[in-house]
C-alpha cells in the first residue's frame, strides 16, 4: 500500500500504473504535503513515494517528517534533484531510500521491497522492545539491563524506586553509578 506524493500529474499517473502492475496498491495520488498528511490519516499507506519539490507550503522533506512522526509512515524519495544540498536536507528526514529520476522499474521495485522489509523489521523490533518493557514493569524485583561494559540500557520501575534514578536519566550511565555496590563485610563501596 503506497501513497504517491508527486505534483507532476503525468509522472504520478505513470507511477500509479507501474506500481499497480508490480502488484502494489496505490492508496492515493496527491500533489501537496497537506493532501499527503490528510490522505495518510484517512487511509494509511505502508510507505510514501515522495518527490522532494512539490506544490504547496510544505516540501517533500517537511511532509516526510510529519508522515513519520505522526503516523510512522516511512518514505522513499523519488526526485530529479540529487544536488548535495537537496540530499543533505533529505537525510534529515531519515528516508528509507532515494531514487533519482529517471528511474528503472527494477530499481524502483528493489528499493520498495528493501524499504518495506526494513520498516517491518523496525516495527517488529519496536514491538519486542515494548513487550520487554511491559514484562519488566510487571516484575516485583528491581531489574537493570546493561551492555557488556556495564552501561545501563534500561531499568524497570522497581529499580528506579530502589536506586532513586529515573530510567531516562540512568540510560547511558555506568551501572556502578546507578547502583553502587557495597561489600557486605566491610560496608565499604566495592571498587
Helix content: 40-55%
User: In percent terms, what proportion of residues is strand?
Assistant: 15-25%
| Largest sheet strand order | 2-1-3-4-5
Helix and strand element order: EHEHEHEHEHEEHHH
Can you give the mean pLDDT? 85
Low-confidence stretches: none
Please compute the radius of gyration using only Cα atoms.
23 Å
Shape: elongated
Give the distance, in angstroms, between the N- and C-terminal Cα atoms.
56 Å
Oligomer: single chain
Written overview of the protein:
It is a single chain. The chain has 191 residues and is of the alpha/beta class. The protein has helices at 9-21, 33-42, 60-71, 84-91, 105-138, 157-163, 167-170, 175-178; strands at 2-5, 26-30, 47-50, 75-79, 97-100, 144-146, 152-155. The strands form two sheets. A five-stranded parallel sheet has the order 2-1-3-4-5, sandwiched between helices. Strands 6-7 form a two-stranded antiparallel sheet. Helix 1 (9-21) links the parallel strand 1 and strand 2. Helix 2 packs parallel to helix 3 (60-71).
Amino acid at each position: 500500500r503506497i501513497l504517491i506524493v508527486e505534483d507532476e500529474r503525468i509522472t504520478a499517473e505513470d507511477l500509479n500504473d507501474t506500481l499497480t502492475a508490480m502488484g502494489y496498491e496505490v492508496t492515493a495520488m496527491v500533489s501537496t504535503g497537506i493532501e499527503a498528511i490528510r490522505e495518510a490519516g484517512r487511509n494509511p499507506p505502508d510507505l510514501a513515494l515522495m518527490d522532494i519539490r512539490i506544490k504547496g507550503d510544505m516540501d517533500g522533506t517537511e511532509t516526510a517528517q510529519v508522515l513519520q512522526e505522526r503516523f510512522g509512515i516511512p518514505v522513499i524519495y523519488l526526485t530529479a534533484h540529487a544536488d548535495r544540498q537537496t540530499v543533505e536536507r533529505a537525510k534529515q528526514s531519515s528516508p528509507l531510500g532515494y531514487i533519482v529520476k529517471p528511474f528503472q522499474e527494477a530499481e524502483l521495485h528493489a528499493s520498495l521491497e528493501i524499504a518495506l522489509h526494513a520498516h517491518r523489521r523496525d516495527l517488529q523490533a519496536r514491538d519486542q522492545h515494548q513487550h520487554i518493557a511491559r514484562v519488566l514493569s510487571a516484575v516485583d524485583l528491581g531489574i537493570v539491563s546493561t551492555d557488556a561494559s556495564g552501561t545501563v540500557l534500561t531499568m524497570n520501575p522497581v529499580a528506579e524506586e530502589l536506586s532513586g534514578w529515573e530510567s531516562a536519566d540512568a540510560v547511558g550511565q555506568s551501572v556502578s553509578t546507578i547502583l553502587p555496590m557495597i561489600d557486605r563485610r566491610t560496608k565499604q563501596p566495592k571498587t
